[in-house]
Amino acid sequence: MSKPPLTATASQTAGPFFHLGLTGSRSVGRIAAPGIEGERVRLSCRVLDGDGAAVNDALIEIWQADAQGHYHHPDDPHSSSGNPAFLGFGRQETDEDGSCSFETIKPGRVPGAGNHVQAPHLNCTVFARGLLKHLTTRIYFSGDPANAQDPILRLVPQERRDTLMAHEHPAERGAWHINIHLSGERETVFFDV
Amino acid sequence: MTADSRRTSAAQEASLGQTSYRRPEPGSQPNYLHPAYRATVRRAPSKPLILLPHTLSEITGPLFGDSPLAENDNDLTRQHAGEPLGERIIVSGRVREEDGRPVRNTLIEIWHANAAGRYSHQKDDHRAPLDPNFTGSGRALTDSSGRYRFVTIKPGAYPWENHPNAWRPAHIHFSLFGHAFATRLVTQMYFPGDPLFPFDPIFNSIPDERARQRLISHFDLKETKPGWALGYSFDIVLRGREETPFE
What we know:
heterodimer; A: about 190 residues; mainly beta; Protocatechuate 3,4-Dioxygenase, subunit A; 8-stranded mixed sheet; B: about 250 residues; alpha+beta; about 25% strand
């Protein structure tokens, strides 16, 4: 493999004031408007640091497929069949409690390497003061039978897989929650992408 | 090869799991934990990251090529009734992938402090004046050769509480998406000759000296507009595609 002529630019922290450039009118809390095909999901996320303290200055971005498992992107062979009203992108800042929420639909299953098919998941990035590079994780849906066969979850030690699971509220259908622990005992699994 | 046949072949590669993005050159990216930057200590992951083979989820990503931009989105000096105080500058450059191909029609978002070193942000408590004519927020799309251009004012340095007498070198935050989830980049552009470089743990978190130097813009006489504004050039490189199968 030959070395490319250029080297990718280094990452630097988004800092505490990213709201100026990245949120406000540029926030996207509603990934799927009502009427978009799929099982409705109201997802709340809470970001915590290594001491368990709320991270009130994080930015979360979501990238996801539609209910058919197709991404709105030219490199997805099935992209054209997707709904143009559904981009699959979300972006929210955390509040004083470290929380933010998204309104979306549960994505379908997406092809993995070889003959594998991935379980429904949201691709998630976290930016914050103190993060020199963004963190990448995935959000899966607890209880989905496809999780057992997911090729990426299989790369994760069994005892840490639950950190990637959103859980549905027992009394409120469609309300899902996940905690993202940046560090420490209950640290979320982050991926080297 | 037509654009459509290229598209089809990229799509076929993707479905076979054969397209992926290059892993970073050693030393060219900061580590998460950099204790000199204190906030990393409680926020950096302590467990090893899990290497993620690139799937359709990573080689796709949001494209904002048809974002409706307002006329003054890339001119931060014309977003209010009056002109902001400070040294007017033009920041321009090219966005390319590592193999040199231009990243066309990609969204760039920027934000920065005013000329006095104060952000127009409720959590910035630096005792420096706000400028009613400056918000410090801009957007632009690259053109067909990957070029972008902003007009703004040069931001000031400002103090922060990382260590005694800590000051950030003047910088502009840049955010780019590129073509894929895997090419997402948030970085900072610095200005040449800043005396604060040796003391800044964020700048110095990048191990490779050459990679640090590439975050420093260059004074650009060609882009400097006579009698009006200094030009600085800042080129950005996003991760390139690996042409070999990953498994």
